[in-house]
Amino acid sequence: MCRLLLCATFFILHSSFFIPLRAQRDTIVFTPQWTAQAQFAGYYVAEAKGFYRQAGVKVRIEHPSATQPAMSRLRSGECQATTLQLCQALEVVDGGTSLVNILQTSMNNAMVIVSARDKDPLTQKGERVGIWSVGFGQLAICMSIKDHLDYKWVRFAQNVNLFVTGALDATLAMSYNEYYQLVQAGIRMTDKNVYRFCDHGYNVQEDGIYMTRDYYDSHKEQAQRFALASRKGWEWAAAHPQEALDIVMEYVDKNHIATNRVMQRLMLEEVLRLQVDRESHRREFRLRPDMVQLASRLMAEHKMLNREVKYEELKE
Amino acid sequence: MRKLNAYIRRKLSVRVSLWVVFFAAIIFNVALGFLFYQAREAVRQEAINRAMQTLDKTSLRVEGILNRVEVASNMTKWLVERHPDKADSMFVYSRGILLNNPDFYNCSIAFEPYHFENKGRYFSAYTKYDGDSIRTIQGGSDLYQYFFADWYLMPQLLGKPSWTEPYMDLDVASNTSEMVTSYCQGIVDEHGQMIGAINVSLSLNWLSHTISAVKPYPNSYSIMIGRGGTYFVHPDSTRITRQTIFTQTLEQPDTAMTALGRAMTHGQEGVRRMDLGGEACYVFYKPLGQTGCSMAIVCPESDIFSGFDRLRRTIMAIVLGGLLIMLYAFIRIITRELKPLRRLAYEAEAIASGQFDTPLPDFQRVDEIGQLSHSFGNMQQSLVKYIEELKDTTAQKTVIERDLLVASRIQMGMLPEKFPSRDDRDDVQLFASLTPAKEVGGDLFDFYFRDEKLFFCIGDVSGKGVPASLFMAVTRSIFRTVSAHESMPDRIMTLMNKTIADMNKTHMFVTLFVGVLDLPTGRLHYCNAGHDAPLLVGAGVGELPCDANIPVGFMPSWQYTLQETHIFTGTTIFLFTDGLTEAMDADNAQFQMERVTDVATEALANGQQEPHQLINRMTEAVHQFVGDAEQSDDLTMMAIQYIKQQSTEQILKRIVLPTDLQEVPRLNAFVEEVCHDVGFSHDDTMQVKVAVEEAVVNVMKYAYPAGQRHDVTIEAACNTLRLKFTIIDSGRPFDPTVQTVADTTLPAKERNIGGLGIHIMRQNMDSINYERLGNLNVLTVRKKIHN
Q1: pLDDT at A145
Q2: How many angstroms separate the CA of residue B228 from the nearest CA in chain A?
Q3: Containing domain of residue A65, as a range?
Q4: Within an 8 Å CB–CB cutoff, is residue A184 touching chain B?
C-alpha cells in the first residue's frame, strides 16, 4: 500500500514538475525584428511579469543588431523565434525556409503613405517615395503597380530624415512608428496627405511570431507555451497600458534607444488598436486565412512570390 | 472697517491727507510707470542685441568649421572626378582629408554597386581616426549597405551637396558610436551621371560644447535642434536625440512651442517671448549655416530683467515709504493747523446754544483761519443784532397775522352765510363755498332776493391776498348798491364797471358773472364779464352760452350785453371761479374743465344735482385730484337749483282801459268782481284794490307823454295758491320795483319824493314783479288765497 502511495505521489510530481523542467532545458531566444520599442510590449510584459516562467518556458529576448538582423539570427539558429510581418513571412517561405506562425498579434495593416506638401498620395504618380531597405513595403509596391502610380521607390535605411529634409515626395510609414516620428518632426497630418492601406483593400495582417518548422516540430509544446505566455503578455498590456508602458521604457533605456515616453505611449496605443479585429472587434491572436490568401495572391501576381503560399503552410 | 471709515469721515486732517497722498501716488505711479516701461524696453532691446550678437558669433564659429569641411570635400571631389576609375586612389584621398583636418570625424568616398570591376558590390574608402592613428578601410557590406544611407542618397535626391541630419554613426570595428553630421556631395562621371558620393563627417561633440557654452545670463541655456526638431543640444540630457521640440506638444498642446519649432525647423531667425516650464522666457534662435540645424538661446525673463526688477522694487519701496511718511506728516501738520478751528467750533457751539455773548478767541493770525475768526466775531455781532430784529419782526408778523385773521373773518362775514334750501323756499335752493388760497382772497359771490327775483353774482379779482380782498369787498358792495336800483344784469354790470373803472387806480380788474332769476317763471337774465361760463346741470350737462365781454374795471364806457335763457324746474346753475379748473396737483397738472363737466355729469347720473350735493362732490373731486399739493388759487363755487313747480293758472278776467283817470272806477269794479270770484275777504279785496289802483294810476299818469291816450290792460288770473293781476302797457320803460321805498317812519316833510306807491303795493300784496318784455312794461302783483 505504501509503495502504491509512493508510486502515485511520484507520478503526480513527475507529471507536474518533470515536463516544465524538461521544457526549460532549451531556452527560446526570441528576437523581435526591430530595436526595443512598444511594438513588442506584450513580450516585455510577459518576461517582466514572469508569464514565461509561469508557463514553464525559458525565454530570452535579444534584439537584433546592425550586424545581426532578426531573420539572419533565425536562419543561423541564434534565435528560435522572431516577429515577422505576414508579407515578410510569405517571402521567406517562398524562398524555401519553412516557417510556422505560432502567434499572430496584428489583425490589421499599419502601413501608410505620408505625402509631403499636403498632397494626396494617389495623385503623386511617378514621384519619389521612400521605402524601407529591409523590406516591409511589399503591399505598397503591389498598390503602386496595381493603381498605375509607378512610384519611384527610394530605399532608405531606417529613419525619416530623408523625408524631413525634403529629399522625398512621400514616404512609407508604419502608423505606430514612423507616422508618429513624422508628427514629432512637425509634419502636419491631414486626411488628405495620409493614405492608409487598410482602408483601400490592402488590410493584411502584419506582426506575428514565427519559428522555423524544424525547430517548431521538435519543440512544439515549448513553442505553444511560449505563444500562450506571449498572448497573455499582450492581454495584460492591453488591460494595464500605463504599467506596460513603464516596462517598455525599462527595455528602451536598457537598450539605449533614442526615443521617448510620449512616442512609446502613442506606439503602444496604436499597436494595441491594430490587434483588434475589425469585424469581430476582439483581440483574436489568430492568422486569418483570408488575409494570407489576399497577401499571397497580391505578391504572386506582382512577381514578389514564385507561387501562392497557402495558409496551411504557416500553421502548425 | 466701519470704525476706520467713521474715523476718516470724522477727521478732516486724515481725509485731506489721504486725498493728497492719493493724488501724489497717482502721479508717482504714472511717472514711474512710464519710466519703468521705457527702461524695461531699453533692457529688453539690450538683451535682444546681446543675445543676437552671441548667436551670430556662435553661428560664425560653426560656419567657419563647416566651411572647412565643405572646402575639403570640394577639393576631394575634384580629385575623385578626375580619376574615377582608380579605386586605390580613393583610399589616399579619403585618408588625405583626415590627415589635413584632424578635427574631422571620418570620411567616406563611396561608389555605386559594382562601379569597380574587381571590387564587387560595395566600395567605400572609409577613413577614421582611431586614437592618434588613422584607419583607412574598405567599407560597405551586406550588413552595411551604404547606398541606403542618408548621406549617400541626399546629394542624389536633392541634386546638390547637403548636410545630413545628425545621426549616430556606428563604427563596427571598434563597436563605438558617435553623433555626427555629414557633409555629402555626389560624384559624377563625365556624362553627369552620379557614380558615388563623398561623405565628410564632423562629431557633434565639439558643436555641443560650443553651443552649450553659450550662456549670456546665469540661468540661460542653449539648445540645438535638427531639421526634424530633434534635440541635439539641451540642458536636459534625457531629451537629446530622444525628443523633438514638438514631442511635449503632443501631450500638452502648446501653440507657442509649436510655432517656435516650425520657425526653427524652417530655418528662420528671430526672437519670441513664451512660457517654458511655467517661466516667462525670451527665445533667440538662428539657423546654423547650411546644416539644417537651428540654435536657440533661452533666457528667462527674470534673468534679463533681474537688475531692472531689483531697481524697480527699490524705487517702489522708497516711493511707498515716502508716501506713508508724507501721509503721517500731512496728518500732523493739518491737525496742528486746524487746532484753532476746533476751538472755534467749540465756541460756535456755545453761541449756537444761545450764549451769544460767549467771547471768541483772538488767534492773532492773518491767514484764512484768522479771517475766519474775525468773520466769526462779526457774525456773532450781526447775529445778536439780527436776533433782536427778528424778535421785532416776529412781533410785527404776529400783529399782521392777527389782522389778516380778522380781515379774513370780515371778508367771510361779507358773504352770505345762510343759503336757502328746499325747506325755506319752494322756488329755488342755493349753496356756495369759498376757500381762499391765503388768509384772504379775491374771489366773491353774493345773492339776495328782491321781490320775486334772485340776484346773484360770482367773481374773481385779479391777484391774491389783501389787495384782491379789498377789491373784492368793493365789488361786492357796488353789486349790492347797483342791483338795488337795476334789475337787468347788463345794466348792473355796466354801472358797476363804470364805477369801478373810474376809481381803479391800481389797474386791477374782476371777472364777474351777474344773473337775475325770475322765480315765478324761471326766466334767467345774465351778463358775463370775462368769467368762466357756468354749467347747467339739468336734463344734461352743458355750458351756459356767454357773450365775450371784458372783465369789469378796464374800460368805463364798455356796454355789456344782456343774455337770457329759461331755467327749467330741477336744473342747477353751477357757477365757479378759475380756482376750480386751474386747481393743480403735485405735478402741476390742472383739474381742467373736462373734469368739472365729468364730475357734474356723474353727480347728475347719481341724482346729486342739488346745490349742496353738487358742491360737496366737486370739492371732494378737487381735493382728491390735488392731493397734498398746496392750494394755488382761491376756489369758489355756487350752485343754484330752480325747483319751482309750475301750477296751471286760470285766466279769470281781462279788461283794457284807456289811460284816463276817469276809468279808475271801472278798474275798481273789475278788481272787486275778481276778488269776489276767488272768495277774498273784504279786507283782502280792499288791499288788492288799493295796490292795483296804485299801479294802474301810475301807468295812466306817467307811462305816456302828457296828452296822449293809450290803453292799459289788466289781466286777472289765479291758481290754487295765488291771485295774480298783470298790468301791461306799452309806455316808456319803468320799473317800479327799483324805486326807493318811501320811509314811512319819517314825517311827510322829511320824506323823499316818490316811493310811496311801491310801498303801498308791497304792503298790500304778497309779491310784486316787473318785467320789460319787448316794448311792454309788465307788472305783476300776487296775493295768496288763504283758504
Answers
A1: 92
A2: 4
A3: 26-107+206-314
A4: yes
Q: Do domains B83-206 and B417-642 have the same CATH topology?
A: no
CA distance B134 to chain A (A): 24
Q: pLDDT for B568-623, tens place per residue? A: 999 999 999 988 998 888 888 899 899 999 999 999 998 888 999 999 999 999 99
Grid-cell match 527560446, residue found: A28
Instruction: Kindly list the residues from chain A whose CB atom is less than 8 angstroms away from the CB atom of residue B154.
Output: 162, 165, 167
Domain B215-302, what fold?
Answer: Beta-Lactamase (3.30.450)
The complex's ipTM works out to 0.83
**Inter-chain CB pairs, A–B, below 8 Å:** 94
Torsion angle defined by CA atoms of residues B483, B486, B491 and B494, in that order, rounded to the nearest 10 degrees: -40
Low-confidence stretches of chain B (pLDDT beneath 50)? none
Q: Are residues A74 and A103 in the same domain?
A: yes
Q: Do A259 and B250 touch (CB under 8 A)?
A: no
What CATH number labels B417-642? Answer: 3.60.40.10
- Alpha carbon of A129: minimum distance to chain B alpha carbons (Å): 11
Q: pLDDT band at A37, cuts 50/70/90?
A: very high
pLDDT digits (tens, 9 = 90+) for A71-102: 889 989 999 999 999 999 999 999 999 999 99
In the block, which residue shows the cell 561623405? B199
Shared domain check, A194 and A169: yes
Distance CA B93, CA B111 (A): 14
Give this prediction's pTM: 0.59
Do A118 and A101 fall into the same domain? no
CATH 3.30.565.10 fits B650-784, yes or no: yes
Greatest Cα pair distance, chain B, in angstroms, is 193
pLDDT of residue A15 exceeding 60: no
Sequence-distant (6+) residues with CB within 8 A of B248 are A262, B254, B257
Q: Which fold has domain B83-206?
A: Beta-Lactamase (3.30.450)
From the list A39, A159, A38, the residue with the least C-alpha distance to B241 is A159
Type of residue found at B213? A
Interface test with A, best of B241, B250, B258, B291 (most A CBs within 10 A): B250
pLDDT exceeds cutoff 70 at A20: no
Q: Are residues A226 and A309 in the same domain?
A: yes
Amino acid at A232: K
- Kindly report, residue by residue over A135-156, the tens digit of the pLDDT: 788 999 999 999 999 999 998 8
Cβ neighbours of B144 in A, within 8 Å: 66
Q: Which of A165, A255, A265 to mutate to test the interface with B (most CBs of B within 10 A)?
A: A165
Whether A139 is covered by a domain: the verdict is: yes
Q: Give the distance from CA B106 to its chain's centroid.
A: 89
Distance from CA of A54 to the nearest CA of B (A): 35
Is the residue at A223 inside a domain? Answer: yes
Q: How many domains does chain A have?
A: 2
What CATH number has the domain bearing residue A117? Answer: 3.40.190.10
- Rounded Cα distance between A166 and B162, Å, is 11
Spell out the domain ranges in chain B: 83-206, 215-302, 417-642, 650-784
Q: Is A54 on the interface with B (CB under 8 A)?
A: no
Residue ranges of chain B whose CB lies within 8 Å of a chain A CB: 143-145, 148-150, 153-154, 157-158, 162, 164-165, 167-168, 170, 172, 227-230, 239, 241-248, 250-251, 258, 261-262, 265, 292
Among residues B324, B297, B272, the alpha carbon closest in space to that of B53 is found at: B297
Per residue in B298-317, pLDDT tens? 999 888 888 888 998 999 99
Q: CA torsion angle for B80, B84, B86, B88 (degrees, to 10)? A: 50
| The C-alpha cell that represents B286 in the structure block | 538662428
What integer pLDDT is reported at residue B382 of this predicted model? 85
Asked if B246 lies within 8 A of A168 by C-beta distance, the reply is no
Q: What is the pLDDT of residues B48-82, one digit of tens each?
A: 888 888 888 888 888 888 899 999 999 999 999 99
- Best A262, A267, A268, A270 member to test B by mutation, with max B CBs in 10 Å, is A262
Which has the closest alpha carbon to B123: B94, B102, B96? B94
How far is it, in rounded angstroms, from Cα B573 to Cα B566?
Answer: 11
Span of A165-169, A281-285, B342-346, B742-746 with lowest mean pLDDT: B742-746
